[in-house]
Backbone:
């Protein structure tokens, strides 16, 4: 390799780093829960989804403090699809939350670092009651599973 080629490579990677950075607009972050009204004996699942062509370059999600809940370790899922438009990545983190006391609480405010930027997803209000959970029309449904509200692709 000639000295001139080495100089060009050095210039491209070290003097122009902005050319190779990932933008937050290339990544989408969502946070959802599978239920917004539970009793003290129930649990909810918080799903954090990071998606986009550069989702694999995003840092780990940072969850806001939730002292009203005990969190399990997250389960993680990753998907990648390859097509004519390029590569698209999806990373999901699922936490099981166990309530510590009754009340109405914010759950799932989350942020993730993408390059030099931080993107955020808002919290969801969750109601925890001390007795049995009140029946809602969705609860009386015969379906055995609920959608976690993840993004549609």
Residues:
């Amino acid at each position: 390799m000639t000295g001139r080629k080495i100089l060009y490579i050095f210039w491209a990677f070290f003097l122009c780093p902005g050319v190779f950075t990932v933008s937050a607009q290339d990544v989408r972050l969502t946070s959802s829960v599978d239920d917004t009204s539970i009793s003290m004996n129930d649990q909810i699942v918080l799903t954090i989804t990071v998606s986009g062509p550069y989702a694999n370059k995003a840092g780990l999600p940072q969850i806001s403090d939730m002292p009203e809940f005990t969190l399990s370790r997250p389960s993680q899922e990753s998907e990648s699809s390859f097509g004519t438009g390029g590569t698209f990545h999806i990373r999901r983190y699922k936490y099981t939350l166990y309530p510590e006391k009754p009340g109405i609480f914010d759950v799932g405010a989350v942020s993730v670092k993408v390059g030099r930027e931080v993107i955020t997803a808002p919290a969801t209000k969750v109601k925890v009651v001390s007795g049995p959970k009140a029946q809602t029309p969705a609860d009386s449904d015969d379906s055995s599973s609920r959608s976690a509200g993840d993004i549609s692709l």
User: Anything to note?
Assistant: The CA atoms of residues 142 and 149 lie 19 Å apart.
